[in-house]
Design goal:
By secondary structure, the chain is of the alpha/beta class. The chain is built from twelve helices and 13 strands. The protein has a five-stranded parallel β-sheet with strand order 11-10-12-1-13, sandwiched between helices. The longest helix is centred in the C-terminal third of the chain and has 17 residues.
Length: about 350
């Protein structure tokens, strides 16, 4: 039996996931089902299942959404044509894209307008990569870090820019960056890395765990890029690392002979799953938190949702003879309302 669990901090929900989960919870509470969401709101099976039980229908083709339905677009960012189609079809359309993904979309458009060929480092088929490439499909080419830069072919005599999926492993990005800089001495890159702060923080935390743990458990879904990156970072540090969705995924053989178990979670994994895993491991000497930094980032709810909720509040107050004019509405104190609390309203 393991004697101790080392618990990574930070772990789990990032600011973008917090925002997206809360936004879709409001949609579920305001509208009669079904509420439609283009792609999984975040890449976590437990979160998606909770919303499906609450009446959310996830679609991979925006044309599958009936006209006049409420629509939310996922946190991973959507192609421009998807945003336009959703806006035209929806009674209310809310884009829950993470602001850090929006930054990359802006960089793709800006560098394309300047005549650059674009190397976009990302994973083939990932929702975020698909949406970003769609901003400039004639000049942006996907380079999967597992394959390398040899697949990139410049199409013009203009410059070359290097951009990235926000959820990559730092080592994946740095390997392609090094190769690109050698091939293209005038390579353009963003002044601040495209990699999400939460991605790099969680990777730093699992490296700390790996210094002391005998085995690492990474909680998150198979299609979560940042979760898979955590597994690779842990394995690269020389410690057996396993991805699990929850306690049911733990193989007893992994814990045989393991005195210290490191536990962390990808940026879209609910903390309840973390607590359930710790309970299943049952460390005889308890839990030690290993903290590498504090995170206090906060992303406001999408502007479309805030405007809709404010209009709805004004309408309701008008119907009740304006009994509470000027008081805070339901989304005005969003900073103090967590995604974990939002999911608890759905029974998670």
């Amino acid at each position: 039996m393991p004697s101790k669990v080392l618990l990574a901090e930070p772990r789990g929900f990032c600011a973008g996931v917090e925002m997206a989960i809360k936004a879709l919870t409001w949609m579920v509470k305001v509208f009669e089902p079904p509420v439609y969401c283009y792609h999984e709101i975040v890449h976590n099976a437990a979160v998606v299942a909770a919303f499906e039980r609450a009446g959310v229908v996830f679609v991979d083709d925006i044309e599958d959404v009936p006209d006049g339905s409420p629509i939310m677009l996922s946190a991973h960012g959507s192609a421009p044509e998807v945003v336009v189609t959703a806006t035209n079809r929806a009674a209310v359309m809310v884009d829950a894209v993470c602001p850090l993904v929006t930054k990359v979309h802006h960089e793709v458009r800006r560098m394309a307008d300047k005549g650059y060929d674009i190397i976009y480092v990302g994973h083939e088929g990932h929702d975020e990569a698909v949406g970003a490439i769609a901003e400039a499909p004639d000049v942006a080419q996907l380079v999967d870090p597992r394959v390398g830069i040899d697949t990139f072919e410049p199409r013009s005599e203009g410059g070359v820019a290097l951009l990235a999926q926000t959820t990559l492993g730092l080592y994946e990005w740095e390997d392609v960056l090094s190769d690109a800089q050698e091939l293209y001495p005038d390579l353009w890159t963003a002044r601040k890395s495209d990699l999400c702060y939460a991605t790099t923080n969680r990777q730093s935390a699992i490296q700390k765990l790996a210094e002391r743990a005998d085995v690492l458990l990474v909680i998150g879904s198979e299609n979560s890029s940042n979760t898979q990156a955590l597994v690779r970072v842990g394995s690269n540090a020389g410690v057996p690392a396993y991805r699990i969705d929850g306690p049911a995924g733990i193989h007893p053989s992994w814990l045989e002979g393991a005195e210290v178990v490191g536990v962390t979670a990808g940026a879209s994994a609910p903390d309840q799953r973390v607590q359930d895993v710790i309970t299943a491991v049952a460390p005889s000497e308890g839990v030690e938190v290993v903290r590498v930094t504090d995170e206090d980032e906060y992303f406001p709810l999408p502007p479309q949702l805030r405007r809709f909720m404010q209009a709805l509040q004004a309408l309701v107050e008008g119907g009740f003879a304006c009994r509470n004019p000027g008081q805070d509405g339901p989304v005005d104190n969003d900073r103090d309302f967590s995604a974990t609390e939002a999911l608890s309203l759905l029974g998670v």
